[in-house]
Amino acid sequence: MDIKKLLFVTKFEELGFDALQSLLSLRKASLNHVVFVNVIERDRVAMHRGAGYLKEEEIRLRETANIRFIDWAEDLFEQGMEVGVYIVVGSMVSEVIKAAQKEESDLIVIGRPHKGVLEQLYAASDITELLRRAAIPVLVYKQLSETAISIEKPFEKPLLAIDWSPASLRAVEYLKVLKDVITEIHVIHVVGEKELKGASAMEVQRKRKETRKKLDDICDVFETEGVKADAHVYIGNAEDEIERAAREHQASMIVLGSSGKTAWVERWLGSTPQSIAEDSIYPTLLIPFEK
Amino acid sequence: MGKKVLVVDDDPDVRLFSVTVLEEHGYTPLEAANGEEGLKMIKEKKPDLIILDVLMPRQSGIRLYRELKTDKSLKNVKVIILSGIARKTFLRSQKALTEFGGKEIPEPEIYLEKPVEPEELAEAIKKFLG
User: Fold this and answer.
1) What does the DSSP 8-state code read for residue B72?
2) Closest CB from B57, B89, B100 relative to A74
3) DSSP A202-227
């Protein structure tokens, strides 16, 4: 589960070269290849009533992206890295998945949509769809300027939220490989209030103890790799508590296993990984379940 | 049949441009869309010259050039680099790869920065193939 090749998906407004630079600490964990992807959404150049296909607009958008990527690529090439580029017209999710498969990349990095309410509903479904279809981990990056926190090295102090799903346990294996990049990790589990309804003080404490023991076992995995790890149990709403935990422990990123729910279920009922990816101020790394 | 020239570039418009120049001057063009495909064709078709882009999917021209120049059977294949990436960057990148434990390799003899005029490309090809 090494991260050798990273797919950096950008529309430029939401994710710039500073974001990429903050990820270059992954070179300590074998990153040596960055592939830039810019998808020109079809509706920007096609299906314009009376105008048909806007070929000139496509060329302008392609060249604008190309000039930016050349500039970024030069910087990375000079560091001895390998760089590739895709500038394509099409639908966002399909083109990103296609590029990830062609390149056999290990991680997709994408910016968070921040648009108006209606647009956000549409754009957010792109992220949901990507999380559902991607067979590799997806990092939903948050631009430094849009967060109140300063994240120079997102992988330095991750907060791993465990829900005991296969995907979240897979996240442990994924992070273990990054031992040269991570300096400290906080492993948490949020116990839902429903689980404790009607429980006595003794039962609540027993639940906490059991959970804490399981989290400690996970921490041991990291400690064996030389990474300082601390376990924490929170009680309440998962999304709120994970965000709170990230703040309390000054995390640089939130890591979760992404659920195996279908796109329809996630779109209408929501899921914790999806909500955190879209709403949290922290970069969010989602590890898919094995497909 | 004219001498074989392989154009390795992911941009179909650039390939079309180079192929047109080659055909007009009596050469036989071959095409590949990335470094990986290019290397496969070089081994199979044994071109007399390669016109190589740098920034491409799958494998960049920087890595392909390095593979060619470190392979005994391929190191004498002539290469023209035709790219939007600056020559200075290409050289610095090769230097960095050498410092990371790679072999020292010769600089490309002809490095053209995009865009080029057809005459400029034709002249560069002639220098190698006559």
Assistant:
1) T
2) B89
3) HHHHHHHHHHHHHHHHHHHHHHHTT-
Q: A223 is written with which tokens?
A: 């400690």
Beta strand extents in A164-258 (DSSP E only): 184-191, 228-235, 253-257
> Per-residue pLDDT tens for A189-233?
999 888 877 778 888 889 899 999 999 999 999 999 999 999 999
B58 to A103: CB separation less than 8 angstroms, yes or no: yes
pTM: 0.90
By DSSP bridging, strand A138-141 and strand A284-287 are antiparallel
Out of A79, A83, A103, whose CB is closest to B55?
A83
* Cβ of residue A73 closer than 8 Å to a chain B Cβ: yes
Contact residues, chain B, for A82 at CB < 8 Å? 59-60, 62-63
Question: Is A84's CB within 8 Å of B100's CB?
Answer: no
- Which string of DSSP letters, residue by residue, matches A34-92? EEEEEEEEHHHHS-BTTTB--HHHHHHHHHHHHHHHHHHHHHHHHTT-EEEEEEEEE-H
